[in-house]
User: Fold these one by one.
Assistant:
Number 1:
Amino acid sequence: MDTFSMITGTTLNRYQLDIPSCTASLDVEEFSGAEKLSELYYYTITFTSAEKNIDAAQLLSKPAMLTMGGGALQQLADCKRVHGVITTFRRVNRSEDQSTYQITLQPFLFLLDKQFRSHRFFVNKSVPEVVEQVLQEHHLHDWEYEFNLKQHYPRREQINQYQESDLAFIQRLLAEVGIFYFFTLQEEAQSEVVHFADAQRALMFDKTLPVNSPSGMSDSGAESIWGLNITHNVVEANVTTRDYNPRDAQSVLQSATADMTRGNGEGLTYGEVYHYKLRHRERGDKIDPQTETANFYARLDHERFLAHQTLITASSTAAWLAPAQVLTVTDSLPSTLPAPVQDPLLITGTGFTASRREALRVTLLAVPYSETLCWRPPLLPRPKVTGTMTARVTSAKANDIYAWQDASGLYRVKFDADREDKGQGQESMPVRLAKPYGGDVYGFHFPLIQGTEVAIAFHEGDPDRPYIAHALHDSRHVDPVTEKNSTRNVIRTPANNKLRMEDKRGEEHIKLSTEYGGKTQLNLGHNVDASRKLRGEGFELRTDSWGGIRAGKGIFITADSQTEAQGKVLDMAAVHSLLTQAVSQMESLSQAASAAKAQLLQYEQQQALMEEKLLALKQAVLLMSAPEGIALASGSHLQAVASENIYMTAGQNVELGAKKNITLAASEKISIFTETEGIEAIVAKGDLISQAQSGNIEVIAKQNISLTSTTEGMTFTAAKTLTFTCAGGAYIRLSGGNIELGCPGDIMMKQSKLLYSGPASMQSNIPELPDSGPQSMSFMLLDALGNAAPSTMKVSLFDSKSKEQIWSSAFNDGGSGCFEPPESENFHAIIGDDKWTSLFSYNDEHDIEDETDDDLDFDEHGPQYDGELNEQDKE
C-alpha cells in the first residue's frame, strides 16, 4: 500500500487501530505508550466507535495492531506499527452517537505474568535454556524470539522458580547474567519478535536524526530531535564480589577489583562495592572471565552502575525510534552540542503521545554508546524462601535399600511440590545434609534412604541453594518412638542396628545391638526381652557368633563391689589383700620346706608377679578377682598354659579330681611337701607304681615303715645286691646267688623244723626301664614389637667350653627349631652369616598397621653374638 489513507479507508485519522477479532469500526482518539530495554512496552489507546456496547470477549487477550502515520494528511506514510495483545479494556463514556473505549496494548509476553508458580524446579539447565523452555511452553514459535548471545552460559545444577510468575522469573534470570531484551516487528508476519542479547553487536545501528526544534506548532513534517538534556551522576567506582563453594572449600572465590572505566572515571566515581553473593562456583580469569564466575559478576555489576552515570533525555517527531537503537545526532558545523551527545547514543527508552488534535511527540531516554561498556539491565530481587520445603530422598536405583550419594556424600531429592517428571535420581542438584557435628573425615552422619521425607532449607533464603535441614517421619515411615514406647530414646538403622536407652524409672537400661551373627548385644541395667519382660539385671555382653575381649595394656575383671562407681577403675584393694595373703602363705610353706630339706617354693617370683605386673596392671596381664569364688566350666577341655610359671595357692585345700586320669609330668622335678598331716597315696583298684628310671628311690621315716600285702605276697628284687640292715649292726645281704647273714651278737632261730636240700635258685624279674635320652630345646628371636625374625636369617650354636658347633639352621617364623643342648649349661649363638638385615627399625611418624616395605628402615650388621644363654633362657 502506497499511502496510509488507502489502509484507513474513509477516515483521515493518522492513527489506525486494527483488531481482527472485533467487527466494529474503531477510530483512535488518542494514545500514549512507552518502550524500554528489558521491559515490556505498553500503549494505552482511547478510541471511539458507533458500536455502543462492544463485548469484552472480542478484545481481551486478542491480538491488535496500532499503526502510526506520518507526513501530509492526504498522503500519510506508514511510520510505525505496534503489535501486541489487549490486556485491559474499559468503556469510558457513551453519547447518542458513539461510545468511547480504552484498551492497553502489550506484547504477548505480558500474558506470562498471569501464569504464577509457587514452586518449579529446573535441573542441569543454563539460563538461556530455561528461558527458551518457558517461551516454548507458552507456544511461542522459534521465529518469535531470538537469542543473539556472545557468551556461553554454563548449565546450572538447579534453578528454582519460587513464588513468581513465568514473566518475573525469566526477567530475573536474564538480569542476573546481564542479558537484555527488546522487541521488533516481524515484517512478514506483522507480529512482535523478542530479542535476547548480551553484547553491542545485537543493537540496531545507522540511525540518524538532526537537531531541529519545531517552530511554533509546526515541524514542517521533518523528523528531528530537540530538547537534549544531560544528567551526570556520581556512581560507584569499583566492585569486588566473593562467594564460597563447599565442594572446593580451599579455593578463594574472590574476584579482582572490577573498574570498567579502566581508571578513566577518577573524580567522577566514588566508593567501593563489595558483594558476598552465593551465585558463582569459580573465580574466573581476570581479563576475560568465563560467564557466571566471580570476575564475570564483578564486571557485570560495575557495568550496571555505569549505565546510570550519564543519562540523556530528548524529544523528537520520529515515530520509528525504539530501544536498542544506536542514534547519531547531527548538527551544523561547528557543532554546538554537548560532548556526550556528539558521539552515538544508545536509546534505552522511548515514550509516545498523540491524539486527533495533537501531533505525535516522542520522548527518549539514552546513554552514551560505548564499544567497551555494554548496557546491563538492573538486577531484580531474588525471592527469599522462608521456612523449609518437604522433599523425598531419591536414588537412581528403584527400591534402593542403601543411601545413594556422590563422592562428596551429597544426596538427590524429589521435591513434593515438583509435579514434573524427571529422570530417576536426577530430580534435584546434589544437596548437602546438615548435621550437628562434623569435621575432616569425622562427624555425625546417618545415611538417608530412598523415600525418606526431609525438610529442605535454603542458604540465606536463596531458592537455588537448597540443603537438607533434617529428616522427618510420616505415616509410611513410622517414628521409632511413639506413645507406645515414649519412655525410650532410640537410634535404629534400617538394618536394625540399634542403640536404645530406656528412661522409665525403675527399669532404666541401655541396649546396643546388631543383627549380624544372629544377635550381638550389649545390655546394661534392667534387661528385658521383646515383650518387655525382665530377663536379667546388671550387664550382658552376648553374641550368637564369635566373641573376643582384648586390651593391650591389661584387663581387670572383678566381682568386688564398688557402690555407684565411687572408687577408682583399677581399685584392687580386695585382690591385693588376697594376693598378699597368698604370697605370705607360700613364704611360710617355703620356710617349712627349707627346714625339712624339701624343694623350696618360688614365692619371690610370685611376689614379683604381683608387684611388678598385676597390681595397677603395670603390664599386659589378665587379673580376675571374686570375693565368693570363681568357677571355670567346660563341656570339653579346659587348658591353662604359661610360658614361665603357674602358681596356685589356697588358704585351705586344693582338690583335683578326674573321672579317668590325672597326669603330672615335669621336665626336671616334682616336689611334694606337707608340713603337718602327711601324704596319702591310695589306689582303690589297680597298681601303685613308683619308678626312678635313672636314679634312686629313698623312703625315710622317723618312726616305722610298714609294707603289708593283705591277700598276696611281697617280692623284693635287686639286679645286684639286696641288703637289709639294722641299727645294731646285724644285716642280711643277697648278692651273686649267695645269702650272707651277719651280726655282732647272736643269731636266734625258732622253728619246728629245719630242712636242708641241695642248691636252688629263683629267676629275678628285672623290668627294663626306658631311656629318656637328652632333652631338646629351642628359642625364639623377636623384636621389641613382637615381630618374628625373617626366615632368611640363620643361627649357629656353639658349646661355650669346647667351642664346637652344636647346631645350625635358619629361623622359621622366629623359632630356631629343636636341638640337643650341650652338656655345659651355657652356649653361644651366632645370628646371621657375613651380614644380616634388621627389619624392625620403624619410622615413628607412621602407624605400624599402615607400614609397607617402602616405609621400613634397613640396617646391615656383621655377625652378632647374643652372649651366653643361661637356664632361664632355655625352652
Number 2:
Amino acid sequence: MSDTKLTQLSKEAKARAIVEEFRCKNNTTLLNLLFTDIVGSTKLKQELGDHKAVAMIQAHNKIVRDCLSGFAGAQEIETAGDSFFCTFLRPSEALLFALKLQSAMRRTFPARELELRVGVHLGEVVMDADSQGMDIYGLQIDTAARVQSLAEGGQILCTHAVFDNARQALKGRELKDLALLVWLNHGPYKMKGVEDPIDVYEVGEEGLGVLKPPKASEKARPYNDSEDELGWRPGLGVKIPGTEWTLEESLGRGGFGEVWLASHAHVLEKRVFKFCFNKGRVRALRRELNILQLIREKTGDYPGIVRLHEVYLESPPYYLGMEYVPGENLRTWLNTAAGPRDDGPRGKFFGRLDSLKQKMAVVLNAPLGALLRSWLLRNGKAVTPSTSLAAFPLRIKVEIAAQVAEALEVAHKAGVVHQDIKPDNILVCRSPGRQAIPKIKVSDFGVGRIVNEEALKNVQLTKNPGGPASDIFTSDGGTSLYLSPERLEGKKASPQSDIYSLGVILFQMASGDLNRAFTFDRLEEVGDPILRKYMQRMLSGNHSRRCRTAGEAAHMLRRWHYWRRWRDIWTLKIFKSSVAALGFVMVLLAPVAYYLVSSYEAELNASLEQHRPDVKHYNQNSANLLAKLSESLGEIALRQKDYEKAIEFFTEVIQHAPDNSDAYFKRGRAYAGKREYEKAVADYSHSIDLSPDSAGHYFNRGVCYFNLGNYDKAIFDFTKEINLGTNKAASHYALARIFLNKGMPEERRRHLAEACSLGITEACSQESH
C-alpha cells in the first residue's frame, strides 16, 4: 500500500476517533431504531379469549427473538406486551431482519390471524447503560414509533436514510427464503408532533408485502406542499363538494394527488376520481385531460380506452371523473386468473392447488404447507409458491396484446403517444370464466405526449391553471423495464416506442414472468416460432424496422392464430405423406411388427393392471387432500366472518366429497351469517339427511325456520334437538319465543320453566311475567 493511502487512512481513523470520543462523552450514537407491534391485539383477546391469545403472542415473541439472534450487534431494548423496540448497527440489517420476521410470521400464522407492522428510522439517540441494561432516549425514537404506527399488518415502513442505505447494500445480494424485493417511495407525510414532513418508504416481498401507501389517520396524513390553500380533503364516506358522489375506496396515490372510487347517491353507477390539490401539480392532471379530449374529438368514445366523464379545474380540489372498470390491471389479473396446467388429471390437481393458494394467499412454506410440500415431493412433484402464468393459454395472451395494439392505434391516429404502456396501465374487465376472452381497456395517459401539432387544429383544449399548455408536447415519462432503446437514449417518443413497450409485455406473458427484462437472446424462451418472429418485428432495436403502426401490429397478432393452425395442418399432411411412403416397407415388415406389437401390448396391459390400484389410490389421495385443505380454509374464513370465501371453500369440499355432512352444515352456517336463510335451510337439510342423529344440525335449521317465520317446522327441529342433543336449554328458550309469537302462553311458560331450570337466567326473569 502506498504512503499516500496510508496517510489518508490514518487521517480517517483519527477523525473517527474524535467523533467517537465526543459521542462517548455525551453518550450519543447513531442507531437504526426498529419498532414492531401486533395489529389488533386487543380485539384478538376479545375474540379468542385471554388464554389462547396470550399463547399466540408468546409464539410471536419467540419468533422475534429467534430472528433477532441471527444479527450480530442487534439489541432488544424494550418489550411492552406485544411490541418490541430493537436497535441495529446497519440499515440493511434492520430491514433484512424486518423482512425475515414478516416471512416467519406468515409461515407460523398462514391465515394472517396474527400480523405485525414494522417501522424503521435512522437517528441519533442518547444512551444510558447501567447494571439493569441499556435505555435509549431522544426525539428520533418518537419518529420511529410514528413511522411504525402508519403501517398496517404485514407492512414494513422506513425513512429515507434507512431506505437508501439498505437498498444499496442489499442490491445484487441473493437473499435466502425471500421473494423479489419491491422498494417504494410513498412521499411525504405530516405527522402529529413533528414539525417537518417525513418521507415514508416501504420495502416488501413481491406478491406478499402490502406494497401500498399508508392510509391517512389522526396521527399522520399525506402532505402536499400547498395544503394551506385547501380546506377539503378526500376520505372514506366523504362527499365530493358540489356533487352527489361519495368516496368509498382509496385506489392509490400519484405525483399529482390521489385516486378514489366513488358511488352516486341516486344513480347505480361508480366512477374513479383523480384529485389534485394544488396548482403546482395540476399539470399532469390537465395533460391527461387534454389527451383524452383530443382522442375523443378525433375518434369518438373508443371502448378500449378508459372514458372521461367529468372535469373540475376551476379551484381546488381539481379532479377528473373517469370510467370505472370492474376488474383488475393486467398484472393482477394474470397472476390470479392463470389456469391449471394442461397435463391431465395430475396437472388439474396441481393447477387447482395454485388457485387455492391465490384465493387465501396460502404460501407453501407455512406449517400446513410444509406437510403438503413433503407429500408432493414424495409423489414426484416439487411445487413452488408461484402462479401457472407460463401455462396460461397463449391464445388469450396474444388476444390481449392485439386489443392493446388496437387501442394504441386509436390514440396514435389522434396524434397521441401513451409513453407508459405496462401491465399496471392495462385494465382487464371481469369475464365469466378463465377461458373466456377478456375485454381490455388502456388507462393512465398522465405522462402521454401529443406528437402531432396538426392534430390540435379545431380542438379546444382545457387551460392549465398552473402553467402553460406546451407541456403536452414535452412530457417525459415511462417505466424503465418497458422503455424502447431510443427512449433510453433520451430521444423523443414515437408510436413505435409504444409498440416496443407492448412487445415487451407480450414477451413477458409468453415467457411466463411479468418481471423479466427483455433481451434478444431471451426470445429463444418463446416456444412458438411464429410468435417469436412477430415479436422480433415489435422489438427491433431500430425503431424504423418495427411495425409501422400499432394497427399493423394488431393485424399481425390477429393472424397468428390462423398461421399457427395452418402450420399444424401442414405438419399433419407431411406426417401423413411420410406414413404413406413408408407403407410399402411396413407391409414387408408386417409379420415381424405384429409379433413385436403383440408382445409389447401384452406387457403393457400387464403393467397397467399392476399399477391400476396405485393410480386409483393417487387420485383418491389428491381429492382427499384438496377437500381437507379447502375445509381448513373454509373454517378460517368462517371464523373471520368472511362468509363469501367460506361458501366458496365449502363448495369445493362438497364437490370432492359430496357425502361430507359437516361441509353442508358449515356452508349452511355461512349462508345463515349472510342472512340467506333459505339456502342455509337447504344445506342443513342435506347435512341432516347424511347425519340424521346430529342434534346441532336440527338446532341451526330451527333457527333459520324461526327467522323465516315457519314456526311449525322450527318447533319440530327444536323438539328433535331436545330429544337428541346437549343444547336443550337454548332449544326450550327458542320454543318459548315461538309460542309467545303464536299466542300460546301455557306452552311458553312450560318451556321457559325448562330453560330456567337448565340455567338460562333470562328465562327465569321472563317466567314470572
Number 3:
Amino acid sequence: EEGDPIVLPCNPPKGLPPLHIYWMNIEHIKQDERVYMSQKGDLYFANVEEQDSRNDYCCFAAFPRLRTIVQKMPMKLTVNSSNSIKQRKPRLLLPPPESGSESSITVLKGDTLLLECFAEGLPTPKVAWDKMGGDLPKGGESKNNSVDTLKIENVSYEDKGNYRCTANNFLGSATHEFHVTVEEPPRWTKKPQSGVYSTGSSGILLCEAEGRPEPTIKWRVNGLPIERNPFSGDVISPGEISFTNVQPNHTAVYQCEASNVHGTILANANIDVVGKHVCVLSHLSHVLPFVTLWTVDVPDPPENLHLSERQNRSVRLTWEAGDDHNSNIKYIVEFEGNKEEPGRWEELTRVQGKETTVVLSLAPYVRYQFRVIAMNEVGRSQPSHPSGHHETPPAAPDKNPQNIRVQASQPKEMIIKWEPLKAMEQNGPGLEYRVTWKPQGAPVEWEEETVTNHTLRVMTPAVYAPYDVQVQAINHLGSGPEPQSVILYSGEDYPDTAPVIQGVDVINSTLVKVTWSTVPKERVHGHLKGYQVNWWKTKSLLDGRTHPKEVNILRFSGQRNYGMVPSLDAFSEFHLTVLAYNSKGAGPESEPFIFQTPEGVPEQPTFLKVIKVDKDTATLSWGLPKKLNGNLTGYLLQYQIINDTDEIGELHDINITTPSKPSWRLLNLSATTKYKFYLRACTSKGCGKPITEESATLGEGKYAGLYDDISTQGWFIGLMCAIALLTLILLTVCFVKRNKGGKYSVKEKEDLHPDPEVQSAKDETFGEYSDSDEKPLKGSLRSLNRDMQATESADSLVEYGEGDHGLFNEDGSFIGAYAGSKEKGSVESNGSSTATFPLRNSFNFNMNLVSIS
C-alpha cells in the first residue's frame, strides 16, 4: 500500500570486478532521500508512492572488463492507494535490523571506507552522520545520495573509532553505531640483505615487518622451511638469522615471509660463501720492497660481558671487543626482560667508537639480561653471549595514564577511559588506577574510585555537566606523580525546549528567511550542534487542493537564530517549525508557523511541436507547464528566421491572452524559409523560460516538416493509381491464360490424382519437404481435396478398371476434366471466389494456386 517500505532485490552474479549496478525502467531510476540503491545493488524505498507502480523494474549488472551487461528479469511493483497513510518514525533498513544497534567493521589502511545507513519512515527520514568523540574527516560525507553513505577515502589509523548515523523525522529518530577498526597488511621495515661471506666468518640476516595485526615472520631456505635445513651453531629467531662459522653449504636463497590475516609478503636474500684464494706470480720482472693487502668482513661478536656498579635504576656493562676485520665499528646494546613479550630482544642504546663500557639506565621491577652486537660498514656481527641477570627493585609508578576521555553515554552518566600503562612502565606489582572527579570548579570533595582496568562508569546528578577528572597510577610501592585534571562532560540528553519562531520573511516566490529565538544553554542538555527547520506544503493556492504531509528538513549548524529556506513551491501555503538538536538528538518542535509564497513565473511548457507547415503558414501545438506557479495569463510566442547564414532575422512577438489555447497558427511566413520558435508561459509576475522548436516552410521541399500528410500530395496519388492499374492488368492476363479450352494431358491427370502406391514410393524416394519446392497457397488446399473426391465418385469405371486405367474413360481422356475444373473449381470463402488450377511437376506433387477476388 501507499506509504509502505519495500526492498527490490538485485542479487547480481559474481564476476571479475569492478562491478557497476544500476536500476532502470524506461529510464534510470532516480535516487533521492526516499529511494536508495545499496552497495549490494538492492533498491530500497523508504515509503512507496502511487507513481512508483511499474511492471518493468530491471536491475543491470555491468562488468566493464568483460564488456558484459547482465539483466535481471523485470519486476512488477503495484502500489495501491490508501485513504489513510499512517505516518511513522524512522526504522533502519540499512544496516539490516538483525544487526542490532551497533556493528563492527574492519577496513585496511589506504582503502576506502563505505558505511551505509538508510531508514524507512513517513515522512521520509533525513540521515546525518557524526563521529563520537571527534570530527568527521573533511569531505568524507558522500552528498550524492542525501548522506545515506559515509565515504572516507585513503583511510588512516586516525580514522578508527565509532561512527553514528541518525535518521530523523518529526516523529522520532533511529540510530546505529559503527565500530571501525583500521588494520594493515604486512609491510617491510627492514628486508634481509644479500651478501658474500668467506668460509669460517659470521654474519646476520635481519627481517622486520609491521602491520595490524602484527605479522608472523618465518624463514625459508631455497623454498623450504628453515627447520628442515638447520645449520649447527646458527641462531634463528623470527626477526633474524645469526650465522657462526659460515661454510659453503650456507650458500642459498634465504626467504623471509611476513604474514597476517590480510596478506603475505616475501623478501629474498642471496648468501654466497667463497673459499680461500691463493695468488701465484711467476716470471717476475722486478722486486717490490713490500705488499699490503687489506681484507674486510663483519666484526666478530663481543665477548666476556660483565655487569658492575649495580644500582636500583642503573648498571654498568663492560665487554671485550672482537676482531673488527679492518673496519670501524660501533656497538648495539640489547636487553630482554619485557614481561609482555618474554624472549624478545629490544635495543636499549648504542655506543659509538671503540668504547667497551657503558652505564645503562634501567626501569624498576624488571629482570634484565643484556647482549652486545658489533656493527661495521660490512654488517652486523653475531650477538654476544647474554650477560648475567640484573633485577631492579620495584618502585612507585613514574607516569600516569594518557589520553583520558569520555565515551558517549546515557544522560547523567560518564564512561571514563584512558590508555593503560605498558608492562615496562608499571614499576611494580599490584598496578591500579585511582580515578577522582568532581563538578568543575565546585568547592566540594573529590569523589574517588580505584579500578584495575582502564575504564570506569560514573553516575552523575546532572545532565551534560562539566567535571574535573584525574586518573593516577598506583601500585604496592606507592602512587604515581600528581595527576593533571581534564574536563569531561556527563552524558547528554535531548533538548527539552523548543525555539520560538519570530517571523518568516518572504524573499521571493521560492525563498524565505526564518528567524527564531535561541534555546537557553541550560535547556539544551548537551553540546548544541545547531537548529533544524522542518517545513511541509499544505495546499496549493492555485487550485486549493491539499497536499499530504511530506516534511522537508534543513539543518543550520552552530549557535544562530535565522536561516534561509530555498526551493519552495510558488503560490502555495506552508507550515514551518524549528527545533534545536545536540549530539544526542533533536528536541521538541516549535508551534507551526503558517506562511504563503506569492506567485512566480511558470516553468517552460512541457513540449512545443510544429504540427503542420505550408509555404506561408505554420501551426504550433504545446503542453501546459508542469508547474504553473500562479494563475496562467497567457503565452508569449516569438519567432525569427534562422536560415543557414550568419545573419538571423528580426524577432517577432505574439501575445496569446487565452491561457487554455493549446495551439496557434502563424500566417504570412516566407516560403522555403527556416524559422525558430520560442514559447513562454506567463503569469502576472512575468513569463518563464522558453521552450524552442525549429521548422521550415515548404517550397523546394528541403525543410518539409516531420508532420506533413504525404497522402494529400498529388505525385503520391498518381503513383498509387499507376501501381493499381498495372496489378489489375497482370492478374487479368494470368486468369485468361489459365482458363483456355482443350483437354488436359494424361500426365497432368496422373499428377492431379496419383496412385497411392506410386505416391508412397515417391515419398520414400524424395524424402521430406524442402523450402526449394514450390509452395501452394494455404487457403486453396481444402478446395483441391473437395475436387478430388467429387471426380473420383463421378467416374463409373473406377471399380472395374485396372490400376493404370481406373481414372480414364475409353478414349483415354480424363473423366470430368472440364466438369471438375469448371464446376468444382471454385469454393466460396468469406465472400470471395478462389479458383484452383493443376500444374505439372516432374518430381513432386505440388500445386500453385492463384486467388482472384
